[in-house]
Write a structure and sequence with these properties.
Distance between the termini: 15 Å
Order of helices and strands: HHHHHHHHHHH
Number of strands: 0
CATH class of the largest domain: Mainly Alpha
Number of domains: 3
Length: 267
């Protein structure tokens, strides 16, 4: 959709400008010792001002979510569902794992859009037939269908494709879905039931165990220390400047980590 492409262009541009502004602000403390004393204040003001201007532009580009470009929830669902169907159809035809991974990634965004649906604040709807249908649909899509797709062979992918193709076709042909459509989708998704929730693990069992998680945590510690060491031992900057540079880098790494984790959440 043209609206989605416009959203992605603004979003990507805002992300790039945000990272540039962050780099400029963090670089002030690192390059200050190399600037002549008489020009240091002016240089810091110029770099800081450019960083703030870029931050303002980035904020303006990033302040509009996908809801602004696609206000109808059916359009947002179709926006992610269609490329997922294409990727899964390619996987079903050629068996390439990359196509399956693309489909799974996009279908997680479909699940997030479905999770936004709710029957409102009326108890008779939430606890009634419509609420039950919608709740089962949401749980079985994320917890059942997505889980089945992770290790799906071509045959299983073909069966899942039937469900997704039906949803895609309905959204293409109608301006809005109704209770009948929800019931049909929920009945089809009942073939992929969501497993019962497991008891909550103790906090020590929830500590990061994946190698990627450990690498990220290590970077939070190693990169600031390395920055301070390089400044003091190799560039021979004063201890205070090296210390401040390490602190600034740690703050920047934490900010960047939070930003990257937030970007992983489906739009």
């Amino acid at each position: 959709m043209a609206q989605y492409r416009s959203y992605r262009r603004r979003d990507n541009a805002g992300t790039v400008l945000l990272l540039i502004s962050l780099a400029l602000v963090l670089s002030i403390g690192s390059i200050a010792p190399f600037i002549p004393t008489e020009a240091r204040t002016t240089a810091e003001l110029v770099i800081g001002s450019i960083g703030l201007v870029l931050l303002g532009v980035a904020s303006r580009l990033l302040n509009r979510s996908l809801d602004y470009y696609l206000p109808r929830t059916e359009d947002r669902l179709l926006c992610f569902l269609k490329p997922a169907v294409d990727s899964l159809r390619a996987y079903e035809s050629y068996g390439k794992e990359d196509d399956n991974k693309k489909a799974l990634k996009t279908l997680r965004k479909v699940a997030s859009v479905l999770d936004e649906w709710n029957p409102g604040n009326l108890d008779f709807l939430k606890n009634g037939r419509v609420g039950k249908i919608l709740s089962d649909l949401q749980k079985n899509f994320r917890g059942g269908l997505l889980a089945s797709l992770k290790d799906a062979d071509k045959t299983k992918a073909r069966n899942i494709l039937v469900v997704l193709t039906n949803m895609d076709g309905v959204l293409e042909q109608t301006n809005s879905i109704d209770e009948e459509h929800l019931e049909i989708w929920s009945r089809m998704l009942s073939e992929y039931p969501s497993p019962k929730p497991q008891p909550s693990k103790p906090i020590w069992r929830r500590l990061p165990a994946k190698r990627s998680h450990l690498s990220i945590i290590s970077m939070l510690v190693v990169v600031p220390i390395a920055t301070g060491w390089v400044g003091f031992a190799l560039l021979h900057v004063p201890v205070e400047a090296a210390y401040l540079g390490a602190i600034a880098m740690f703050g920047g790494m934490v900010g960047l980590l939070v930003f990257l984790l937030s970007r992983k959440r489906p739009s």
